[in-house]
């Protein structure tokens, strides 16, 4: 059972778009590759609660909006 909302990925993508930052910037903040960030945001890698929280922190948004 996931602790993430069913629409967490869509919400996360909306926050990334709203913030105007690039995947490279998010990746640097998280300490992962830009390609991995892209895979997550495009739904080709599973969005885990840990990754959602890390991306939310990088964007400066409250991570709880992605949780059930």
Number of strands: 0
What is the succession of H and E elements? HHHH
Structural domain count: 1
Task: Give me the CATH fold name.
Answer: 434 Repressor (Amino-terminal Domain)
Helix content: 55-70%
What gross morphology would you assign?
globular
Strand content: under 5%
Uncertain parts: none
Protein name: HTH cro/C1-type domain-containing protein
Domain HTH cro/C1-type: 27-66
Organism: Lactobacillus nasalidis
InterPro entries: Cro/C1-type_HTH, Lambda_DNA-bd_dom_sf
Record the SSE blueprint.
Layout: H1 8-19, H2 23-30, H3 34-41, H4 49-59
Helix pairs in contact: 1-4, 2-3
How would you characterize the overall build of this protein?
- This protein has 68 residues and is mainly alpha-helical.
- It has a single domain, classed as 434 Repressor (Amino-terminal Domain), CATH 1.10.260.
- The chain contains 4 helices and no strands.
- The protein has helices at 8-19, 23-30, 34-41, 49-59.
- Helix 1 packs parallel to helix 4 (49-59) and helix 2 packs across helix 3 (34-41).
- The longest helix has 12 residues, at 8-19.
- The protein is globular and about 30 Å long.
- The mean pLDDT is 96.
- Residues 27-66 form the HTH cro/C1-type domain.
- This is HTH cro/C1-type domain-containing protein.
Name the features:
68 residues, mainly alpha, 434 Repressor (Amino-terminal Domain)
What's this entry about, in short?
The protein has 68 residues and is mainly alpha-helical. The chain is built from four helices and no strands.
